[in-house]
Write a structure and sequence with these properties.
The complex is a heterodimer of chains A (416) and B (888). Chain A has three domains: 131 residues, Beta-Lactamase, CATH 3.30.450.60; 118 residues, Immunoglobulin-like; 110 residues, Mu homology domain, subdomain B (Immunoglobulin-like). Chain A has six helices and 21 strands. Chain A is mainly β. Chain A has an eight-stranded mixed β-sheet. In chain A, strands 2-1-5-4-3 form a five-stranded antiparallel β-sheet, with helices on both faces. In chain A, 46% of the residues are buried. In chain B, strand 11 and strand 12 form a beta hairpin. Among the domains of chain B are: 241 residues, Leucine-rich Repeat Variant (Alpha Horseshoe); 105 residues; 140 residues, Immunoglobulin-like (Sandwich); 91 residues, TATA-Binding Protein. By secondary structure, chain B is an alpha+beta fold. Classes of the chains: A mainly beta (416), B alpha+beta (888). Chains A and B meet through strand 2, strand 3, strand 4, helix 2 and helix 4 of A and helix 2, helix 4, helix 6, helix 8 and helix 11 of B. Chain A: This is AP-4 complex subunit mu. Chain A: Belongs to the adaptor complexes medium subunit family. Chain A: It is found in: Endomembrane system.
């Protein structure tokens, strides 16, 4: 089982360190950090999440810029350890509101108290935020999240949109509000990540949607919550998923395993057209969804041949909120758009200057074009929450309920 | 609680400890609590606050759970260093274990189990006994784990006090959390015990399967992993188990899914109905695919496991190849694994799609990934003969892009394709030759040269092409030189005209007279003699038909694969190594060195430390591991001798000397020392194999002794070495005559280095397989003694040179050190000698020539004395010039 658990900062500082079995030498955190920083094995330059040094197995995940690491001497289940590390990060975040070096340091007593309940002698015990509330007594010291990027996909609700009370995302589950009274509210986030690969002829090679429904409850007590999804949803385990919700109504995630959503998934919501004329690149984006939806923070990246010296850009007339850049180091064109309204079409012309003759077809050396975007209040799968019902305690009890949808690009690629 | 905890970290003045002492004894509760927090804060940053032990323990008797927890945290850390004082806490522990509050009862038992002090352990038994039967499940589940803790400290005590029976009773507990922890504790105890403690009967099986449904996710993993050891007696029960486990495949926790997959795969070995198997394969596909939408870290573990699963049961995912296509934002370690699986799943049906992907990857930015993608195309060509032509045309397209590393990688794989399909695709050679001058990597060059030599008769200007390589012959790496030598000989044998004749003379001359590489020299001499005695025989030998190579994408031996599959969802399945290769825990626990480590390193068993602490805590550990590593050679001595480490070590060394005297061409010299027995006759069906790596005249040999104690004559011996850290591989086939019953044979296998290097940290493990015509394959593990690699030329004449650098002056040591470090001259040590500063530095110039530098100077006084040591004295003058420039 797990011998030690520790959290390291990006610089390798020990923020949290707990030894559960006393069988791994003390320098393990330093050994781990060196190994990860200077990884150069197996042809790859990034350390895999599981590796062995001198008989000690190091298993780690990166969350919010921190390394969550466990060591072990035995043949443990790595997926168990990885899941546990993710869960520790999530529980800590639930308790502290914000997960970063500062908040961990300020709350070290609480964190150790949590760790004692979460792991005993290296065995995971309880990782549900709700269940832990009965055993953990320290109160969190809330840290200002201001400059620090918060954790998880819910972070996107922080971006720009005034629609959502973004602060709630960084609120601790247990802390009392400065005003004294706790605000009763619950968040349901439907987050979808789209991965699409277009071939050079525009044909869709692969496409998938990865969706999760995350629920975060700040309700006192533990009322039964009912979440109803579309009636026409074809999931094998509709009934049991409702049960899962009840049991983890402390802020855990429920992944609807292997749910097959409609095949009619709206995947061509974006389309990237490309035309290449010698050294001129024209990138065209067409937002192929209804005009009342807006996509935010769009980034289009396109690798160019290694012998590209310079690139000059020409945006369409009257373009606002668009920036372009040529990243010499990674030889990439970058085109950032603050937002696109549905149905709009934007074009970028880039002229590339090469240091040598082209080998023929630029398409062979450039690309693929990839795109990052976020569409709030839209989900490609058409999955919908019909209603969110909270068992009522009294007539006046009426907590705030937020249901939020977002669609994000995961791996959205067009090949040339 | 008010204020910020971080204030406790504020820098401390000298009077910190007395100050804390005072606060800990304050009459105010809040002040005491704050003080304990400060102590814990000091502890976590590595300060030694053990002197406050008594004062902190005094705070233990409190109703405040928060404070109690803090004190316990302190106790776990320091009890080991203050065993006599720790006894002070015992009373409170015992009292707490009977507290009306279940949280306090559990806390007391949990903490006591973490304190590895004998005196405390003695008092643990009674409270533990009570807590195992507590009314509250939270206390019972904590007590269950505590039994495992106690077993780790004192196994006998656990057995004597009947705790094992108690644990087994808890398997029938009505609370699933308790059941899960009892199972986890029993499984761990069983792992460290030789006697059967936790045997799963069909009765426990059904109980555990019932508990499975109600457990927490972690408990489900404990139970599934424990049940994996159960062998169903027949297909019906196996089907039954599968039916109960299958719902776990839908779980959101990937660990549960993978453990369930393991369970099902194990049962599938027993199930006979092909319908059921087919159905199960169908059921397992979606959960495995879903694992790939988890976090990248978990994806990696899943992919490593899937890699094994598809080798055994390719049908499960044969239709899902698309999910293994790489996303552009996958981390590189995920991409590499996906590529491996794509190769394994590639079939005639999907090859077009796969090739399209590979081709796309080959134009990406990451060089390592691109190389791997190009290799993948080649491996598909070798695997699927009907797709070979399409693969080659993709490779040719890639070559035309003329990206240097793509071209080189493509040429390497094309060489393999030529080996697989001789005389089929030679028409592309012309295209390959166009990129000749861009090759700068040894492997690519060697491959191209091999192609030219092999097909010399079809390439009109083969002699010109080879000649262009020959110009740089002396500078080429050994790999290229060897290929050049062979290719030139082939060319000469195929086209015995003037130009090749001159070339062969030049090459042979170069390879025999002007090289110090024995491999190259020996090969050159063999060719030379062959060519001069009988050119026809030379032709038969050099141009003989080569065996066709096969696809290597299913590298794992079937027996290893089965072992790994039984270990799905463990680290073993991620490393693709059997557990005993990397798990060393059992040995460490019994080793004396570990004991010492506890004694010395105990002052900071649990918390983080400042660098200064690392030094103090690290040194005993370092010495302990040094002891462990020096005693290692002893463990590989013949198991027959019950010997103390030291004499054995000597015996080993003497053995080395003796075997070095054995002439290589007379391997059966009877005076050779006994070799360690690696396969005893009891497990080898009468055949006993003893072996050891030895060094003889600069060459490494594997010395083997076969003793045939079986009833039949054994013949047809062959040997194979698995990938290892040093790339050791057999340099020649095993030469063993038929061994009659009751006789033995000794042989030396010449070994090559750097053939098939296993990535990862260096390991001394050498896995060997030996087979003969009569018996199954014998696999065994040997250790690689590093000293066989100590080469004869390790001795360096280090000349000392001394020079006065009159123009130089040193004003400040620190500034000088920094200045020199900026020019890559690195500081080693300094000392003072009669008001002169002496600095020791080191640096290195290309080809790894080291310089050790001693600089003697008075501060601020012009004139610096510089002495250097180096194996290459000819560099001394220019080195002094450089130092003078640096020190002006």
């Amino acid at each position: 089982m797990i011998s030690q658990f520790f959290v390291l900062s990006q610089r390798g500082d020990n923020i949290v360190f707990r030894d559960y079995r006393g069988e791994v030498a003390k320098g393990s955190a330093e050994i781990f950090f060196r190994k990860v920083k200077f990884w150069k094995e197996d042809e790859a330059e990034e350390a895999p999440p599981v590796f062995n040094v001198d008989g000690v197995n190091y298993i780690h995940v990166k969350v919010a810029g921190l390394f969550f690491v466990a060591t072990s001497r035995v043949n443990v289940s790595p997926s168990l350890v990885l899941e546990l590390l993710q869960r520790i990060a999530r529980v800590t975040k639930d308790y502290l509101g914000v997960l970063n070096e500062d908040s961990l340091r300020k709350n070290f007593v609480l964190v150790y108290e949590l760790l004692d309940e979460v792991i005993d002698f290296g065995y995971p015990q309880t990782t549900s935020t709700e269940a832990l509330k009965s055993y953990v007594f320290n109160e969190p010291i809330v840290v200002d999240a201001g400059r620090l990027p918060p954790l998880g996909p819910a972070a996107m609700f922080m971006q720009g949109t005034k629609r959502m009370p973004g602060t709630a995302v960084t609120k601790s589950v247990v802390a009392t509000e400065p005003g004294g009274k706790k605000r009763e509210e619950i968040f349901v986030d439907i987050i979808e990540k789209i991965s699409v690969t277009f071939s050079s002829s525009g044909y869709i090679l692969t496409s998938e949607i990865d969706g999760t429904i995350q629920m975060k409850s700040y309700l006192t007590g533990n009322p039964e919550i009912r979440l109803a999804l579309n009636e026409d949803l074809s999931i094998g385990r509709n009934g049991s998923s409702l049960y899962d919700y009840r049991s983890s109504a402390g802020g855990g995630t429920v992944i609807l395993d292997d749910c097959n959503f409609h095949e009619s998934v709206h995947l061509d919501s974006f389309d990237v057209d490309r035309t290449l004329t010698l050294a001129e690149v024209i990138l065209k984006i067409r937002a192929d969804f209804s005009p009342n939806v807006t996509a935010n923070t769009i980034t289009v990246q396109m690798p160019v041949p290694s012998y590209t010296m310079r690139a000059s850009f020409e945006l369409e007339a009257g373009a606002t909120g668009q920036t372009t850049d040529f990243k010499e180091g990674s030889r990439r064109l970058e085109w950032n758009l603050k937002k696109i309204v549905g149905g709009a079409e934007h074009t970028l012309r880039a002229k590339l200057t090469f240091s040598q003759e082209m080998h023929g077809n630029i398409a062979k050396e450039a690309g693929p074009v990839n795109m990052n975007f976020t569409i709030p209040m839209y989900n490609a799968s058409k999955l919908q929450v019909r209603y969110l019902q909270i068992a009522k305690k009294s007539k006046t009890y009426n907590p705030y309920r937020w249901v939020r949808y977002v669609t994000q690009a995961n791996s959205y690629v067009a090949r040339l | 609680m008010s204020g910020h905890d971080s204030k406790y970290f504020s820098t401390t003045k000298k009077g910190e400890i007395p100050e804390l002492k005072e606060e800990l004894n304050s009459q105010y509760k809040d002040k005491r609590k704050d003080a304990v927090k400060k102590v814990i804060a000091a502890m976590t940053v590595g300060k030694d606050v053990s002197s406050l032990f008594t004062d902190v323990v005094n705070c233990m008797q409190t109703e405040n759970l928060e404070l109690k927890k803090l004190v316990y945290l302190y106790l776990i850390n320091y009890a080991k260093s203050q065993p006599d004082l720790a006894i002070l806490a015992v009373n409170t522990f015992v009292k707490d274990s009977q507290d009306p509050n279940p949280l306090i009862r559990a806390l007391a038992v949990r903490t006591m189990g973490c304190i590895r002090v004998d005196k405390i352990t003695e008092y643990l038994c009674d409270p533990l006994q009570r807590c195992l039967k507590d009314d509250d499940p939270y206390v019972r589940k904590t007590a269950a784990i505590c039994v495992a803790k106690l077993y780790d400290i004192n196994a006998e005590l656990v057995e004597d006090r009947g705790f094992l029976e108690n644990l087994k009773d808890l398997i029938s507990d009505n609370n699933p959390m308790v059941v899960a922890n009892a199972v986890a504790a029993l499984a761990e105890i069983q792992e460290n015990s030789a006697s059967p403690i936790f045997e799963i009967t069909s009765h426990t099986l059904s109980k555990l399967l019932t508990a499975l449904n109600e457990c927490t996710e972690w408990g489900q993993v404990f139970i599934l992993d424990a049940l994996a050891r159960y062998k169903a007696p027949d297909a019906r029960e196996a089907e039954n188990i599968v039916e109960r486990v299958t719902p776990r495949l839908q779980h959101a926790n990937c660990a549960v899914v993978l453990s369930a997959v393991k369970m099902i795969l194990l049962q599938m070995e027993i199930i006979t109905s092909t319908d059921v198997i087919r159905n199960l394969c169908k059921k397992m596909a979606p959960p495995l695919v879903t694992l790939l939408s988890a976090e990248p870290e978990i994806q990696y573990v899943a992919l490593r496991n899937i890699n094994l699963i598809v080798q055994k049961r390719p049908t499960i995912l044969s239709h899902e190849i698309k999910v293994f296509f790489c996303k552009y934002n996958d981390p590189i370690y995920v991409k590499m694994e996906k590529l491996e699986i794509m190769i394994k799943l590639a079939s005639d049906r999907n090859i077009d799609q796969v090739l399209l992907e590979f081709k796309e990857y080959a134009t990406e930015v990451d060089v390592d990934f691109v190389r791997k993608a190009v290799r993948a195309i080649g491996r598909c060509a070798i695997k699927l003969d009907r797709a070979a032509e399409r693969c080659i045309s993709v490779l040719l397209e890639l070559i035309k892009i003329k990206v240097n590393y793509v071209v080189q990688e493509a040429i390497i794989v094309i060489k393999d394709i030529f080996r697989r399909y001789p005389n089929t695709y030679e028409s592309i050679i012309a295209t390959l030759c166009e990129s000749l001058d861009t090759l700068d990597e040894p492997e690519a060059k060697a491959s191209m040269i091999w192609i030219i030599g092999e097909y010399a008769e079809r390439i009109d200007n083969a002699d010109e092409l080879l000649e262009s390589f020959l110009e740089t012959f002396p500078e080429e790496p050994a790999m290229v030189q060897l290929q050049l030598l062979t290719a030139t000989v082939k060319l000469f044998l195929k086209k015995p005209t003037d130009v090749p004749q001159q070339m062969i003379q030049a090459v042979l001359n170069n390879a025999t007279v002007e090289t110090d590489n024995p491999d190259l020299r020996d090969r050159a001499y063999i060719y030379w003699r062959l060519l001069s005695t009988d050119p026809e025989a030379a032709k038969d030998i050099v141009l003989a038909e080569k065996p066709v190579i096969s696809d290597d994408s299913n590298l794992l031996e079937p027996s290893l694969l089965d072992e790994l599959l039984a270990n799905i969802a463990t680290l073993s399945s991620v490393y693709h190594k059997p557990p005993e290769v990397f798990v060393t825990r059992a040995k460490v626990v019994t080793a004396k060195t570990d004991e010492e480590e506890y004694l010395d390193g105990n002052s900071e068993t649990a918390y983080s430390e400042t660098p200064s602490h690392v030094v103090s805590g690290g040194s005993p550990t370092a010495s302990a591991s040094a002891v462990a590593s020096t005693s290692q050679p002893a463990s590989r001595a013949p198991p027959t001798g019950p010997a103390a480490p030291l004499p054995d070590l000597l015996g080993d060394l003497i053995g080395m000397d003796n075997s070095a005297v054995v002439p290589a061409d007379d391997p059966a010299t009877p005076s050779a020392p006994p070799l360690p027995v690696l396969v005893p006759s009891s497990t080898g069906q009468g055949l006993q194999i003893s072996a050891q790596l030895v060094r003889h005249e600069g060459q490494i040999f594997y010395s083997l002794l076969f003793e045939n104690g079986s009833q039949v004559a054994l013949d047809g011996f062959m040997i194979q070495f698995n990938k290892n850290s040093f790339g050791l591989a057999a340099g020649a086939p095993l030469q063993v005559p038929a061994i009659q019953p009751g006789t033995s044979a000794r042989t030396l296998v010449p070994m090559n280095l750097f053939q098939n290097i296993m990535p990862g940290p260096p390991s001394s493990l050498l896995q060997v397989a030996v087979k003969n015509n009569q018996q199954p394959v014998w696999y065994f593990s040997d250790k690689i003694p590093l000293h066989v690699f100590f080469s004869e030329d390790g001795k360096m004449e280090r000349s000392i040179f001394l020079e006065d650098l009159t123009n130089s002056v040193i004003h400040s040591i620190d500034a000088t050190v920094e200045h020199l470090a900026a020019s890559n001259v690195f500081f080693v040590a300094k000392r003072r000698n009669a008001n002169k500063e002496v600095l020791y530095l080191s640096t290195k110039i290309p080809r790894g020539i080291p310089f050790l530098i001693e600089i003697t100077a008075g501060l601020g006084v012009p004139g610096v004395k510089c002495a250097i040591k180096t194996p290459n004295p000819e560099y001394a003058p220019i080195f002094f010039e450089a130092m003078e420039t640096l020190l002006v």
